[in-house]
Design goal:
By secondary structure, the protein is mainly alpha-helical. The protein has a domain of 149 residues. Helix content is 46%, strand content 9%. The protein is built from 8 helices and 3 strands. Helix 3 runs antiparallel to helix 4 and helix 5 packs across helix 8.
């Protein structure tokens, strides 16, 4: 009898030791939800981003207009270049990411038999998979324009000069380089809407002297 009692006691102890880990309690779930409702952005147990905010009547009054959503442009440019260069028929890619544009020079493999516009579209889709939706993407496969793209990231210009350099480079890229297919209905191949295209046509764009000087200096050094 004592022997049976001892075996039963040991069995109960082993079951207790091997029991399934307890699930989160209701109290913890409620506490978690309460934190989320107050705008909690605390860390999670994994690498996921997580945030919850309640509606704010002040949003309608423009009090949150000063909110800024930043983008790590260097990391984004690196990711786009890596993805773009992994496309069939593409040997390398150079990317510049500004506050609202992505400029890409890509080198086509000499033995590529893919249609040039198809290649451009694949490169563009690589960029669109990384950037926010409001960005516009501009492409070139012309080696002569590579220095223009590089110069935007590697030179120190005033804000006005940089804006001109970007605008003139975009004009050159879209004038003689495939841009792929329209991004969506109502948008052109660069992701511009009809209103944005109309605004672009109204604005007179001259080739930026700063960009030209940079190209000439680099050519002389070479």
């Amino acid at each position: 009898m004592k022997k049976h009692a001892l075996i039963l006691l040991l069995g109960t102890s082993m079951l207790s030791a091997c029991s399934v880990p307890s699930m989160p309690t209701v109290e913890k779930d409620i506490e978690h939800s309460a934190n989320a409702d107050t705008g909690d952005t605390g860390t999670t147990e994994n690498d996921y981003g997580y945030a919850t905010h309640s509606s704010n009547p002040n949003d309608m009054e423009g009090e949150n207009d000063s909110l800024e959503f930043t983008l790590d442009r260097q990391t984004t440019a690196d990711a786009i270049s890596r993805y773009a260069a992994s496309n069939p028929g593409v040997e390398s890619a150079t990317t510049v990411v500004t506050d609202e544009e992505v400029l890409i020079f890509y080198e086509v493999a000499p033995d590529s038999k893919m249609d040039s516009n198809e290649t451009a579209d694949q490169v563009k889709r690589s960029a669109l998979s990384v950037i926010p939706r409001w960005y516009h993407v501009y492409l070139t496969d012309k080696p002569s324009l590579r220095v223009n793209v590089e110069s935007i990231a590697q030179t120190h210009l005033t804000a006005s000069e940089m804006e001109d350099a970007i605008a003139s480079t975009i004009e050159l890229m879209t004038a003689d380089s495939p841009q792929g297919y329209p991004v969506d209905e109502g948008e052109n191949a660069n992701g511009e809407t009809e209103d944005e295209m109309h605004m672009g046509k109204q604005k007179e764009i001259d080739l930026a002297p700063a960009a030209m000087d940079i190209r000439i200096e680099k050519a002389a050094d070479a």
